[in-house]
Amino acid sequence: MSKKRSIRLGLITFAISLIITTLLAMAFLTNTSRIRRERATFIAESIANRIQTEIKNREYITRILEIQVRSSNGEITQEEFQKIGEALFDDNIDVVDITLAPNGVISYLYPMNSGVSERIDLFSDSQNKIHADNSRNTGVGIIMTPVNLSDGNYGIIIRRPIYLGDEKTTDNFWGFASVTINLSNFLSEVNTKGLAEENYEYKLTGTDVVTGKTQIIMEYSERALAAPVEAMISTVGGSYWTLSIAPMGNWMELYEIAGVLILVVMISILLAMLVAAYTSLQANAKELEVMSYRDALTNLYNPRSYQEHMEELSKKKLPYGLIYIDLNDFKQVNDTYGHETGDALLNIVAKRLQNSIREKDRAFRIGGDEFVVVIHGTHDRKFFEGVIARMRENVGREVTIGEIKLNASISAGYARCPEDGTKFEDVVKKADDAMYYNKRLLKAKRLTGQEKGRVTARDFR
Q1: Does an H or E element contain 184, and which?
Q2: Fewer CB within 10 Å, N or C, the chain?
């Protein structure tokens, strides 16, 4: 009887253990799959944001050309164009050529040996006609890809319509400014190849708002992706691309599932609980370690990370620059709308500051509404002025938080090592003094009733 009871209790214990460990295994498999998808989503969004930023940077070339045409009232000379083209061309290795097309006919080309040997009428050319007509009539820029380039490669064409009058009408239409980009070089610039190194397959598709057609821009392989994650990319003129990525195998491989099920049968309840507890503690410890270097609100690097990073730069005697940034009138936002709105504004401003700098540079939140950007390497003042101008422009875009609309602005100042000081403390003081000088200058302008405008670096250096 005792033996039978022991067997019965053993069977009950086994059944209970099997149920519990099976549930734990299912939870583990589900959570692992979810984590992998979340990681893939983060990677896809990171690359999508990089693509979107680089597209905007290339589109800005056409904006510069538009400014030159309008400033010359449409009478830009070939010599002037070639000088502009030379200045713009060298900044981006993926740019194939830059063109101007008065009345839709390509008449200005840089470089001259890019492969276009004759004047092309965009309104007659089969590849360009429908987009050229739409862009001229709507006043909206266009992006076309993939297009066949003369060297046999695929490319991207970004085209902006130019009007000499204030109104975007066909009567005021002057022509087009265009930039052609080598698609493969562009994607290398944004590191889509890194996806393969992470064992992901990908497809980049684009939807043309003019034709409504969706087509593949680039793909790792022709086979369908297994339950991919996606990230949207806003490009030019309302067109958008979609980056889809998935693992080269499956989110959970069969051998992984089989291994977990074997462990369910073989491992006791106590051992399963210990393993789960250990795994949980290890994951939490790693997360806490990461969090200790990140600001909880904005996810920028925190003061501890800032201090250690600057100690490392100083120890290695590497050149750098510091941009000290303060959010203007932040206390008024908190007092008027509450700290929840203030926190939301800080989070948005932090993202815009991060998007204003290069990937190799770092942004830190060192106080309530105070930020520091570390620019690595040696750069002249014009470079820093450009970075600050980009920050002002990005931060200055209207912010909508619920039903509240805000217009934020920053005060900023910079200093460089070793140009402005070889000691970290000296560089910090000069950057901080420059930032507060800028803040006082802005307040003085308000008091004297001057118009609000962008404050350049010379105002506070």
Answers
A1: helix 183-189
A2: N
